[in-house]
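Sample intake sheet
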Amino acid sequence: MLRSLIPADMSPPFARYAHGVAAIGVNGIVVTSGQLALAPDGTVPSGAEAQARLIFASLDAILRDGGTSKAHLLRINAYVTDRAHMPGYMAARDAWLAGVSHLPASTLMIVCGFTRPEFVVEIEAMATIPPDDSH
């Protein structure tokens, strides 16, 4: 079971995430590497929102391969190369999390760049492996 931690005696989160997440009764954890928006055909979509959507699809595949899903998400770490990319990233993140019953912990950082200049977003995730096949 996962429970979003948003204590009433502190400021609420800035966006759709929780200050922390409690995980109870899990079989393990899946941790992803930072994912960049590289499609299987080697192309890179233009713009932060398109890149984030592709990355979230990749995260879905990795989590599925690890026996879990975004429904069991603990944490997202995201990196963008400019504040101007934050709205596109956040729109894709919020769409990806729309059906999730709890909010994960989240960190968003602005960095100076990635391995190739066309990449503007990188995202990594951590999720629990549920105690049964409920993923």
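Comment: The chain is about 20% helix and 25% strand. The chain has a mean pLDDT of 92.
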